Automatic annotation (TrEMBL):
Originating organism: Fusibacter tunisiensis
One Pfam short name: Peripla_BP_4
Tagged with keyword Signal: yes
Extent of the signal sequence: 1-20
Protein name per its UniProtKB record: Multiple sugar transport system substrate-binding protein
Ranges for domain Periplasmic binding protein: 34-319
Keywords: Signal, Sugar transport, Transport
Keyword presence, Transport: yes
Lineage per the UniProt record: Bacteria, Bacillati, Bacillota, Clostridia, Eubacteriales
CDD domains per UniProt: PBP1_ChvE (cd19994)
Location(s), subcellular: Cell envelope
Amino acid sequence: MNKKWSALLMTMVMILVAFVGCSSENGDSAGPEIGIVLPTRDEPRWVQDETRFKEALEGTDYSVEILFSQGSSATELQNVESLLTKGIEVLIICPHDGDAAAAAAEAAKKEGVTVISYDRLITGTDAVDYYVTFDSVAVGEAQGQYLVDQASGTENPLYLYAGAASDNNAFLFFEGAWNVLQPKIADGTFVIKNSEEAIALQEKAVLTREEMGKILNQVTTNWDFNEAKNKAESHLTAVGAADKGDVFILAPNDGTARSIADTFASDSDVSSYVITGQDAEKASIQYIIDGIQSMTVFKDVRSLVTDSIGMALAVLDGQSPSTTGSYNNGVKDVAAKQTEVIVVNQGNVKSALIDSGYYEASEFTGLE
């Protein structure tokens, strides 16, 4: 009797083990199908994206794991390798450094994983399958146009700042801004005050990447609040009162815009300033409401996340994702899906961000 029960128990255990193994193979207890790597937790923008990604996958049959690289290309590669060991089928990655991220993309491609470059383009490799982005040149053009629209007369002091030279988007943002600003620099509407390289090239309507690189190396913030503050302080110290007054400032994103705005506002020789931004971060929306920051370029990450997750799900379902164009990354033309951008200032902050459901009115003070 005991032997029979023992045999029966052993049979049941074997069936259970087989069932568990089958379940694992079918994905019920397997790792995530989608791996996402974002640049850093230290900027509100990317924490927002993390939340949106999780929301976008609610109600689907697929799971996701999201990791942050904390501004390190080495950590970025480790994150990708970790996700690959968990069996991901699609990698969505926003590179810290476009060139350095090629190694991560190639590691994923070697494992047969589809690589989607998110917001920033991975450069110098053919291992990128798709690119989901806002029109970065259009972002820069919107920033430049805002400064032009607020300017009158001639010899308006212009201070230029840019993102990190390791980020391909920083070049695209600057390219767009230069497209609009350069004619107004050439005709004397603006006078550049903080970049000898930009002054040397101010008669040139179209800059090469190398030429833009020379300017970026002088005015880069590296997307860092403190570096932006230090550069702004240094520039204001280097010029006289005549180079201040009513100034115009090209700031690349909201985080750096707040630092630069605070610095210029504290200089008694600065009578007024107009300053750009992008990302519609909560802190900057409050600055806009309070009149401290002039504008931001709203890039609705809900749309960007929806587009990238839509691409990933299409791949997982064996379909070809829809694209709207392509971007050359130095090695290949990467099929891309672009998302529109919106200029936000005091006049439309409520309709663009509150009425659209992006933020709650209760998150701000002084909102009419």
